[in-house]
Amino acid sequence: MDQEDDRSLSAVFLERAEEFLSGAASAGGRTGADMTEPVLHLTCCALELSLKAVVLHHDGSDERNRVEIRHSLTKALAAADRAGFRAVPGLAAAARHLSHSYETHGLHALATAFSPDDVSSLISMSRAHIESVRAHMASPAASRPIP
Q1: Backbone CA torsion sign across 130, 77, 59, 142
Q2: pLDDT (tens digit, 0 to 9) for every residue of the chain, 147 residues total?
Q3: CB-facing half-sphere around the CA of 80: CA atoms within 13 A
Q4: E-state strands within 3-132
Q5: Cα distance between residue 44 and residue 50, in whole Å
Q6: How far apart are CA 61 and CA 97, in angstroms?
Q7: I need a surface site. Which of 64, 71, 114, 147 has the fewest CB within 10 A?
Q8: Domain interval for residue 95
Q9: How open is the CA angle 42-112-90, to the nearest 5 degrees?
Q10: Is residue 144 included in any domain, yes or no?
Q11: Does residue 46 lie within any of the structural domains?
Q12: Longest C-alpha distance within the chain, in Å?
């Protein structure tokens, strides 16, 4: 894939992030511990894809996303930050809290620590984040490459 293809892929990543978050919000309406892990997983997928969309938008590559960032929310956030993206309040803390468990398929162990209110807050913050990504990518300043 060339750089132009990678950049156009950013819109697809953001669209998919919205779909994952929509699924999380739908499932999050059903309370119960058995729903927390899938909601966390869908939300992490949304965060990962939206942050990678920022990286791609700034002339990052899909290959770099796969090889260097992988499923790390903290690495994806750091790369987006280097590109000039400013995270919404709470995103950095959520990324630090969720990243390792998400990367290692261990969200089931973390899910017990989340109350329904915690899940709702995470989904709300993630919605605000995706809107922030959309606004960032629409901004003329969002055309500079990642240093």
Answers
A1: positive
A2: 556 667 789 999 999 999 999 999 998 777 666 889 999 999 999 999 999 999 999 888 888 888 899 999 999 999 999 989 999 999 999 999 999 999 999 999 999 899 989 999 999 999 999 999 999 999 876 666 665
A3: 28
A4: none
A5: 10
A6: 26
A7: 147
A8: 3-139
A9: 55
A10: no
A11: yes
A12: 45
Cα 126 from chain centre = 8
In a domain, 125, yes or no: yes
Residues 53, 123, 136, CA angle at the centre, nearest 5°?
30
Count of structural domains, the chain: 1
95 three-class SS: helix
pTM for the full model?
A: 0.92
Asked if residue 83 is part of any domain, the answer here is yes
> Which residue's entry shows tokens 């132009």?
4
